[in-house]
Protein backbone atom coordinates (compact mmCIF):
# COMPACT_ATOMS: atom_id res chain seq x y z
CA UNK A 1 0.00 0.00 0.00
CA UNK A 2 1.63 3.21 -1.10
CA UNK A 3 1.52 6.44 0.83
CA UNK A 4 -0.92 9.10 -0.28
CA UNK A 5 0.45 11.37 -2.96
CA UNK A 6 -0.83 14.43 -1.12
CA UNK A 7 -0.27 14.21 2.61
CA UNK A 8 -2.56 16.25 4.83
CA UNK A 9 -2.65 16.26 8.60
CA UNK A 10 -4.01 12.97 9.87
CA UNK A 11 -5.92 14.15 12.92
CA UNK A 12 -6.34 10.60 14.17
CA UNK A 13 -2.59 10.51 14.86
CA UNK A 14 -2.92 13.40 17.32
CA UNK A 15 -5.63 11.42 19.09
CA UNK A 16 -3.37 8.35 19.14
CA UNK A 17 -0.57 10.44 20.68
CA UNK A 18 -2.92 11.61 23.40
CA UNK A 19 -4.07 8.06 24.14
CA UNK A 20 -0.45 6.86 24.32
CA UNK A 21 0.37 9.78 26.60
CA UNK A 22 -2.48 8.85 28.97
CA UNK A 23 -1.15 5.31 29.08
CA UNK A 24 2.36 6.52 29.93
CA UNK A 25 1.01 8.75 32.71
CA UNK A 26 -0.87 5.82 34.25
CA UNK A 27 2.23 3.61 34.14
CA UNK A 28 4.64 6.25 35.48
CA UNK A 29 2.31 7.45 38.22
CA UNK A 30 1.69 3.83 39.26
CA UNK A 31 5.45 3.22 39.53
CA UNK A 32 6.29 6.31 41.60
CA UNK A 33 3.19 5.85 43.78
CA UNK A 34 4.11 2.23 44.49
CA UNK A 35 0.95 0.83 42.92
CA UNK A 36 2.74 -1.28 40.31
CA UNK A 37 2.31 -5.05 40.48
CA UNK A 38 -1.04 -4.97 42.27
CA UNK A 39 -3.81 -7.40 41.41
CA UNK A 40 -7.37 -6.82 40.25
CA UNK A 41 -8.70 -5.21 37.10
CA UNK A 42 -6.78 -1.96 37.56
CA UNK A 43 -3.58 -3.86 38.22
CA UNK A 44 -4.13 -5.84 35.03
CA UNK A 45 -4.65 -2.60 33.07
CA UNK A 46 -1.39 -1.18 34.43
CA UNK A 47 0.43 -4.39 33.54
CA UNK A 48 -1.05 -4.30 30.04
CA UNK A 49 0.05 -0.70 29.53
CA UNK A 50 3.62 -1.23 30.73
CA UNK A 51 5.90 -0.97 27.74
CA UNK A 52 2.99 -0.85 25.29
CA UNK A 53 2.01 2.80 25.78
CA UNK A 54 5.63 3.94 25.42
CA UNK A 55 6.13 1.66 22.40
CA UNK A 56 3.04 3.16 20.74
CA UNK A 57 4.52 6.60 21.36
CA UNK A 58 7.76 5.61 19.62
CA UNK A 59 5.88 4.09 16.66
CA UNK A 60 3.94 7.35 16.32
CA UNK A 61 7.24 9.27 16.38
CA UNK A 62 8.41 7.04 13.54
CA UNK A 63 5.24 7.78 11.57
CA UNK A 64 5.88 11.49 12.08
CA UNK A 65 9.49 11.16 10.93
CA UNK A 66 8.45 9.14 7.89
CA UNK A 67 5.72 11.60 6.91
CA UNK A 68 8.20 14.48 7.23
CA UNK A 69 10.50 12.64 4.85
CA UNK A 70 7.65 12.17 2.37
CA UNK A 71 6.54 15.80 2.55
CA UNK A 72 9.89 17.51 2.06
CA UNK A 73 13.44 17.16 0.81
CA UNK A 74 14.86 14.14 2.59
CA UNK A 75 18.33 15.58 3.25
CA UNK A 76 16.75 18.61 4.92
CA UNK A 77 14.54 16.29 6.98
CA UNK A 78 17.60 14.33 8.10
CA UNK A 79 19.51 17.50 9.04
CA UNK A 80 16.55 18.92 10.99
CA UNK A 81 16.07 15.60 12.75
CA UNK A 82 19.73 15.60 13.83
CA UNK A 83 19.26 19.02 15.42
CA UNK A 84 16.08 17.95 17.18
CA UNK A 85 17.83 14.80 18.42
CA UNK A 86 20.51 16.99 20.02
CA UNK A 87 17.78 19.10 21.65
CA UNK A 88 16.04 16.00 23.03
CA UNK A 89 19.34 14.60 24.32
CA UNK A 90 20.04 17.73 26.36
CA UNK A 91 16.44 17.89 27.59
CA UNK A 92 16.42 14.19 28.46
CA UNK A 93 19.69 14.30 30.39
CA UNK A 94 18.41 17.25 32.40
CA UNK A 95 15.22 15.29 33.08
CA UNK A 96 17.32 12.31 34.21
CA UNK A 97 18.41 14.40 37.19
CA UNK A 98 14.80 14.23 38.38
CA UNK A 99 13.27 11.10 36.82
CA UNK A 100 15.39 7.96 36.37
CA UNK A 101 12.99 6.44 33.83
CA UNK A 102 13.32 9.32 31.34
CA UNK A 103 12.69 8.32 27.72
CA UNK A 104 13.68 11.56 25.96
CA UNK A 105 17.42 10.88 25.81
CA UNK A 106 16.63 7.51 24.22
CA UNK A 107 14.40 9.31 21.71
CA UNK A 108 17.40 11.42 20.71
CA UNK A 109 19.22 8.31 19.52
CA UNK A 110 16.09 6.74 17.99
CA UNK A 111 15.78 9.86 15.84
CA UNK A 112 19.51 9.99 15.11
CA UNK A 113 19.61 6.43 13.76
CA UNK A 114 16.11 6.68 12.31
CA UNK A 115 17.12 9.71 10.23
CA UNK A 116 20.20 7.90 8.94
CA UNK A 117 18.05 4.93 7.94
CA UNK A 118 15.21 7.03 6.47
CA UNK A 119 16.34 6.57 2.83
CA UNK A 120 16.02 2.77 3.11
CA UNK A 121 13.11 0.90 1.56
CA UNK A 122 10.49 -0.79 3.73
CA UNK A 123 12.00 -4.17 2.89
CA UNK A 124 15.42 -3.00 4.10
CA UNK A 125 13.90 -1.46 7.25
CA UNK A 126 12.22 -4.80 7.93
CA UNK A 127 15.61 -6.50 7.82
CA UNK A 128 17.05 -3.89 10.19
CA UNK A 129 14.19 -4.54 12.62
CA UNK A 130 14.86 -8.28 12.45
CA UNK A 131 18.55 -7.59 13.04
CA UNK A 132 17.78 -5.46 16.11
CA UNK A 133 15.56 -8.20 17.56
CA UNK A 134 18.19 -10.87 16.93
CA UNK A 135 20.99 -8.73 18.37
CA UNK A 136 18.94 -8.07 21.50
CA UNK A 137 18.57 -11.81 22.09
CA UNK A 138 22.28 -12.47 21.54
CA UNK A 139 23.19 -9.66 23.93
CA UNK A 140 20.90 -10.96 26.68
CA UNK A 141 22.36 -14.46 26.27
CA UNK A 142 25.98 -13.33 26.28
CA UNK A 143 26.06 -10.27 28.58
CA UNK A 144 24.98 -9.55 32.15
CA UNK A 145 21.59 -7.89 31.84
CA UNK A 146 21.57 -6.85 35.50
CA UNK A 147 24.90 -4.99 35.28
CA UNK A 148 24.67 -1.43 36.61
CA UNK A 149 21.21 -1.87 38.15
CA UNK A 150 20.12 -1.49 41.74
CA UNK A 151 16.85 -3.37 41.53
CA UNK A 152 15.89 -2.46 45.11
CA UNK A 153 15.05 1.12 44.18
CA UNK A 154 15.17 0.73 40.37
CA UNK A 155 18.14 3.10 40.11
CA UNK A 156 21.14 2.89 37.78
CA UNK A 157 24.10 4.32 39.75
CA UNK A 158 26.52 3.85 36.86
CA UNK A 159 24.42 5.87 34.39
CA UNK A 160 26.68 8.90 34.53
CA UNK A 161 29.85 6.92 33.79
CA UNK A 162 30.90 6.42 30.13
CA UNK A 163 30.60 2.62 30.26
CA UNK A 164 27.36 2.73 32.25
CA UNK A 165 25.79 5.29 29.93
CA UNK A 166 26.55 3.27 26.79
CA UNK A 167 25.41 0.03 28.42
CA UNK A 168 22.18 1.61 29.62
CA UNK A 169 21.55 3.31 26.28
CA UNK A 170 22.04 0.31 24.02
CA UNK A 171 21.51 -2.75 26.19
CA UNK A 172 19.76 -2.73 29.56
CA UNK A 173 18.19 0.68 30.17
CA UNK A 174 14.46 1.26 30.42
CA UNK A 175 14.13 1.78 26.65
CA UNK A 176 17.43 0.62 25.07
CA UNK A 177 18.18 1.51 21.46
CA UNK A 178 18.67 -2.21 20.82
CA UNK A 179 15.91 -3.18 20.17
CA UNK A 180 13.60 -0.17 20.82
CA UNK A 181 14.78 1.55 17.64
CA UNK A 182 12.68 -1.11 15.90
CA UNK A 183 9.49 0.66 17.03
CA UNK A 184 10.54 3.92 15.38
CA UNK A 185 11.52 2.11 12.17
CA UNK A 186 8.18 0.29 12.15
CA UNK A 187 6.50 3.68 12.37
CA UNK A 188 8.53 4.90 9.38
CA UNK A 189 7.32 1.85 7.47
CA UNK A 190 3.69 2.60 8.39
CA UNK A 191 4.07 6.21 7.23
CA UNK A 192 4.53 4.90 3.68
CA UNK A 193 1.15 3.20 3.70
CA UNK A 194 -2.06 4.92 2.63
CA UNK A 195 -2.98 5.80 6.20
CA UNK A 196 -5.99 7.87 5.14
CA UNK A 197 -7.50 4.79 3.49
CA UNK A 198 -10.23 2.97 5.43
CA UNK A 199 -8.86 -0.29 4.04
CA UNK A 200 -5.43 0.41 5.56
CA UNK A 201 -6.98 1.46 8.86
CA UNK A 202 -9.04 -1.74 9.04
CA UNK A 203 -5.95 -3.79 8.18
CA UNK A 204 -4.02 -2.14 11.02
CA UNK A 205 -6.80 -2.82 13.52
CA UNK A 206 -7.50 -6.42 12.49
CA UNK A 207 -3.89 -7.33 11.75
CA UNK A 208 -2.72 -5.77 15.01
CA UNK A 209 -5.35 -7.65 17.01
CA UNK A 210 -4.55 -10.99 15.37
CA UNK A 211 -0.79 -10.51 15.84
CA UNK A 212 -1.29 -9.53 19.49
CA UNK A 213 -3.45 -12.57 20.27
CA UNK A 214 -1.12 -14.92 18.39
CA UNK A 215 2.12 -13.73 19.97
CA UNK A 216 0.64 -13.91 23.45
CA UNK A 217 -0.74 -17.39 22.81
CA UNK A 218 2.60 -18.66 21.49
CA UNK A 219 4.40 -17.00 24.40
CA UNK A 220 2.09 -18.64 26.94
CA UNK A 221 2.63 -22.03 25.24
CA UNK A 222 6.43 -21.81 25.12
CA UNK A 223 7.10 -20.46 28.61
CA UNK A 224 6.39 -23.68 30.59
CA UNK A 225 8.26 -25.75 28.00
CA UNK A 226 11.41 -23.61 28.30
CA UNK A 227 11.04 -23.43 32.08
CA UNK A 228 11.56 -27.19 32.22
CA UNK A 229 14.81 -26.81 30.26
CA UNK A 230 16.19 -23.68 31.95
CA UNK A 231 14.07 -21.10 33.83
CA UNK A 232 16.33 -18.30 32.60
CA UNK A 233 15.30 -19.03 29.00
CA UNK A 234 11.70 -18.04 29.77
CA UNK A 235 12.61 -14.35 29.45
CA UNK A 236 13.39 -14.94 25.77
CA UNK A 237 9.75 -15.73 24.93
CA UNK A 238 7.76 -13.41 27.19
CA UNK A 239 5.96 -10.29 26.02
CA UNK A 240 7.27 -8.33 29.02
CA UNK A 241 9.20 -5.11 28.32
CA UNK A 242 12.14 -6.12 30.54
CA UNK A 243 14.14 -7.53 28.91
CA UNK A 244 12.69 -6.45 25.55
CA UNK A 245 12.76 -9.62 23.47
CA UNK A 246 11.25 -10.35 20.01
CA UNK A 247 7.81 -11.36 21.31
CA UNK A 248 7.62 -8.06 23.20
CA UNK A 249 8.49 -6.17 20.02
CA UNK A 250 5.71 -7.94 18.14
CA UNK A 251 3.24 -7.28 20.96
CA UNK A 252 4.23 -3.61 21.14
CA UNK A 253 3.98 -3.14 17.37
CA UNK A 254 0.62 -4.90 17.25
CA UNK A 255 -0.82 -2.69 20.00
CA UNK A 256 0.50 0.40 18.23
CA UNK A 257 -1.07 -0.81 14.98
CA UNK A 258 -4.43 -1.25 16.68
CA UNK A 259 -4.30 2.18 18.31
CA UNK A 260 -3.25 3.94 15.10
CA UNK A 261 -5.83 2.12 12.98
CA UNK A 262 -8.64 2.69 15.47
CA UNK A 263 -7.86 6.38 15.97
CA UNK A 264 -7.59 7.05 12.23
CA UNK A 265 -10.82 5.12 11.57
CA UNK A 266 -12.74 6.88 14.34
CA UNK A 267 -11.36 10.36 13.63
CA UNK A 268 -14.11 11.54 11.20
CA UNK A 269 -16.89 10.59 13.63
CA UNK A 270 -15.08 11.99 16.67
CA UNK A 271 -14.37 15.19 14.77
CA UNK A 272 -18.03 15.61 13.83
CA UNK A 273 -19.13 15.41 17.48
CA UNK A 274 -16.36 17.68 18.75
CA UNK A 275 -14.19 15.14 20.57
CA UNK A 276 -11.07 15.81 18.48
CA UNK A 277 -11.38 19.54 19.04
CA UNK A 278 -11.12 18.87 22.78
CA UNK A 279 -8.46 16.13 22.88
CA UNK A 280 -6.17 16.82 19.91
CA UNK A 281 -4.57 20.01 21.29
CA UNK A 282 -3.15 17.83 24.08
CA UNK A 283 -2.05 15.27 21.49
CA UNK A 284 -0.04 17.99 19.75
CA UNK A 285 1.73 18.98 22.98
CA UNK A 286 2.86 15.61 24.27
CA UNK A 287 6.49 16.71 24.73
CA UNK A 288 5.41 19.58 26.98
CA UNK A 289 2.91 17.39 28.81
CA UNK A 290 5.45 14.57 29.25
CA UNK A 291 7.74 16.94 31.12
CA UNK A 292 4.79 18.43 32.99
CA UNK A 293 3.65 15.06 34.33
CA UNK A 294 7.11 14.64 35.87
CA UNK A 295 7.87 18.17 37.05
CA UNK A 296 4.37 19.18 38.07
CA UNK A 297 2.43 15.96 38.49
CA UNK A 298 5.03 14.03 40.43
CA UNK A 299 6.20 17.21 42.14
CA UNK A 300 2.75 17.83 43.59
CA UNK A 301 2.43 14.19 44.64
CA UNK A 302 5.79 14.44 46.39
CA UNK A 303 4.61 17.50 48.32
CA UNK A 304 1.43 15.65 49.30
CA UNK A 305 3.37 12.58 50.40
CA UNK A 306 1.82 10.33 47.76
CA UNK A 307 5.03 8.83 46.37
CA UNK A 308 5.12 5.20 47.48
CA UNK A 309 2.70 2.99 49.35
CA UNK A 310 -0.40 3.98 47.36
CA UNK A 311 -3.19 1.87 45.85
CA UNK A 312 -3.99 1.33 42.18
CA UNK A 313 -7.19 3.31 42.70
CA UNK A 314 -5.14 6.28 43.91
CA UNK A 315 -2.78 5.99 40.94
CA UNK A 316 -5.67 5.96 38.47
CA UNK A 317 -7.35 8.87 40.23
CA UNK A 318 -4.14 10.92 40.13
CA UNK A 319 -3.64 10.02 36.46
CA UNK A 320 -7.20 10.96 35.61
CA UNK A 321 -6.95 14.31 37.37
CA UNK A 322 -3.64 15.16 35.71
CA UNK A 323 -4.81 14.16 32.22
CA UNK A 324 -8.04 16.13 32.61
CA UNK A 325 -6.08 19.21 33.66
CA UNK A 326 -3.68 18.62 30.74
CA UNK A 327 -6.59 18.60 28.29
CA UNK A 328 -7.99 21.83 29.74
CA UNK A 329 -4.57 23.53 29.70
CA UNK A 330 -3.81 22.44 26.11
CA UNK A 331 -7.24 23.54 24.93
CA UNK A 332 -6.76 27.02 26.38
CA UNK A 333 -3.13 27.29 25.21
CA UNK A 334 -4.08 26.30 21.65
CA UNK A 335 -6.44 29.27 21.43
CA UNK A 336 -3.45 31.61 21.61
CA UNK A 337 -0.46 29.60 20.36
CA UNK A 338 0.08 27.13 17.53
CA UNK A 339 2.53 24.92 19.47
CA UNK A 340 3.14 23.94 23.08
CA UNK A 341 5.92 25.80 24.93
CA UNK A 342 8.52 23.03 24.68
CA UNK A 343 7.53 22.22 21.10
CA UNK A 344 7.91 25.91 20.20
CA UNK A 345 11.30 26.05 21.93
CA UNK A 346 12.50 22.99 20.02
CA UNK A 347 11.26 24.52 16.76
CA UNK A 348 13.09 27.76 17.51
CA UNK A 349 16.34 26.06 18.57
CA UNK A 350 16.43 23.10 16.18
CA UNK A 351 14.13 24.05 13.32
Automatic annotation (TrEMBL):
InterPro entries: Bact_Transport_Assoc, DUF418, HGSNAT_cat. Residues 204-350 form the DUF418 domain. The keyword Transmembrane applies. It comes from the Bacteria. Keywords: Membrane, Transmembrane, Transmembrane helix. The chain crosses the membrane at residues 21-47, 53-70, 82-98, 104-120, 127-145, 177-195, 207-227, 247-267, 315-337. Residues 9-199 form the Heparan-alpha-glucosaminide N-acetyltransferase catalytic domain. This is Uncharacterized membrane protein YeiB.
Amino acid sequence: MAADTKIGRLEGLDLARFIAFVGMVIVNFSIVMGAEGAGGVLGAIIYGLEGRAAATFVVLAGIGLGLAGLKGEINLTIFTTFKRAAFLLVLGLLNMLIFDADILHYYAFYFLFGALLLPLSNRALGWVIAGLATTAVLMVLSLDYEAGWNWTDLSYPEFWTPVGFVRNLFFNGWHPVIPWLAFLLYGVMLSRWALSSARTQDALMLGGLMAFLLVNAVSAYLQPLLAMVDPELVDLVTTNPIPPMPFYLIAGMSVASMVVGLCLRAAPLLKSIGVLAVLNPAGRQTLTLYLAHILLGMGVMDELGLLGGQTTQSAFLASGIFCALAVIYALIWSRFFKRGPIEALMRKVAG
